[in-house]
Design a protein that fits this description.
Number of strands: 17
Structural class: alpha/beta
Largest sheet: 9 strands, mixed
Helix content: 10-25%
Order of helices and strands: EEEEEHHEHEHEEEHEEEHEEEE
Number of helices: 6
Length: about 290
């Protein structure tokens, strides 16, 4: 997947440090450069999903919790960063404090907090995430860092905005150069070599269309100059829609007639200028035509 250096806007790249957001090859994760820090960014971890599948659909699967945790910790080892940012849905179905999902989250948080602090951008599956975070921080003697849980409207760090995507971002989050979004679990249905088709996780990336935010937030101009003293508009941010970290969580087939889940997608993607990318970085062109 092209980095910010491949776009037409210089604001997406800091000459001293490189691209603001750079997807990692062949994994559903990216490195973001935020102020003086670097962060590993993932979306839709969905700890305890096997419990949800059991109760919601009657599907029995062995827990993949250890593999999920191992994959994430390996990324933190391979790509040393200052912070982990989870773009919502850290858990799948928060139940009582003794269930398997809570135990998976506590094990994950404890392991990560031995290395770096965590920011969880609240998602629609994160109703009880504070209680888990508080339990980890107060009951464990092993951790060295803290967890911050944001509002559902997201957070802006430096020139990068982060939002889960199930609700509208705050206006301050939109005042960014790159907007990172989860929630959708984008997938592509692509033809295979035997004449059938298969689903594969994907990234979507393209310039933001301000129209739905103008209609929702009532703002006449999209991106004014930072000090609001010049009657000019900055280029809109790039929107990066993250694939789900959890490979069992399903998703939206974005190149079919299946509807998007987010209230501002796909309207916030500039039509015919939002490309789909496979996890290995292969660019497939506008996602609607894949």
């Amino acid at each position: 997947m092209p980095t910010d250096t491949d776009t037409d806007t210089d604001t997406d790249t800091d000459a001293a440090t490189g691209p603001l957001v750079e997807p990692l090859p062949s994994v559903p994760a990216a490195i973001a450069r935020i102020e003086t820090e670097t962060a590993l960014v993932i979306a839709d971890y969905h700890a305890g999903i096997e419990i949800g599948l059991r109760y919601e659909r009657g599907v029995e699967l062995d827990s993949n919790a250890e593999d999920r945790r191992r994959r994430l910790l390996e990324l933190l080892t391979q790509h040393p960063v200052d912070r982990l940012i989870i773009l919502g849905d850290a858990g799948h179905r928060i139940g009582n404090p003794a269930d398997e999902e809570t135990q998976e989250l506590m094990s994950l948080f404890t392991s990560v907090l031995n290395r770096v602090p965590i920011t969880v951008v609240r998602g629609n599956h994160d109703a009880g995430i504070e209680s888990v975070a508080t339990t980890v921080e107060t009951d464990s003697t092993q951790i060295e860092h803290t967890i911050n849980v944001t509002d559902a409207s997201g957070i802006k760090c430096g020139h990068v905005g982060f939002v889960h995507g199930h609700s509208w971002p705050d206006e301050t989050v939109l005042d960014c150069d790159v907007l990172c979004v989860g929630h959708e679990h984008p997938q592509l249905r692509v033809a295979d070599h035997v004449g059938g088709s298969q689903q594969t996780r994907a990234w979507l990336r393209g310039p933001l269309d301000w129209t739905p935010f103008k209609n929702k937030l009532g703002i006449e101009r999209s991106f004014d100059s930072p000090d609001n003293t010049q009657n000019v508009n900055r280029d809109p941010p790039d929107v990066i829609l993250f694939p789900a970290f959890n490979e069992r969580s399903g998703g939206t087939q974005v190149n079919t007639d299946e509807g998007f889940l987010s209230p501002f997608l796909p309207a916030a993607f500039e039509k015919n200028h939002t490309d789909a990318y496979l996890l290995d970085g292969t660019r497939l062109g506008p996602y609607q035509s894949v």
